[in-house]
Specification:
By secondary structure, this protein is mainly beta. Helix content is 11%, strand content 42%.
């Protein structure tokens, strides 16, 4: 699906419709030393295997792409709920 690089939508900080720059949201790198990651690694260690069942087969062929909208006036960023599609292309 092709999506425009700039959209006009409501900005909650400006409280009016302004132009927003569109980009694709990507998840940041996970911290390996966070408490949850350390605990999960500890529970996986040794005999007994995995804490949660490992996913063997997947049913879905697509993922939901989340859009990141950044206001051009105030710089406020907001997320737009993702739509399910195979490929998202941001065009001019």
């Amino acid at each position: 699906m092709k999506y425009p690089k700039v959209v006009t939508t409501f900005c909650p900080r400006c409280k009016k419709h302004t132009e927003h720059a569109v980009s694709l949201y990507k998840k940041g790198k996970e911290r390996t030393m966070s408490r949850g990651a350390r605990k999960h690694a500890e529970e996986k260690k040794g005999y007994g295997g995995q804490k949660f069942p490992e996913l063997v087969r997947t049913a879905k062929t697509t993922k939901k792409a989340t859009l990141k909208l950044k206001c051009k006036e105030c710089g406020f960023s907001q997320m737009k709920k993702g739509m399910r599609l195979r490929k998202l292309e941001i065009v001019e």
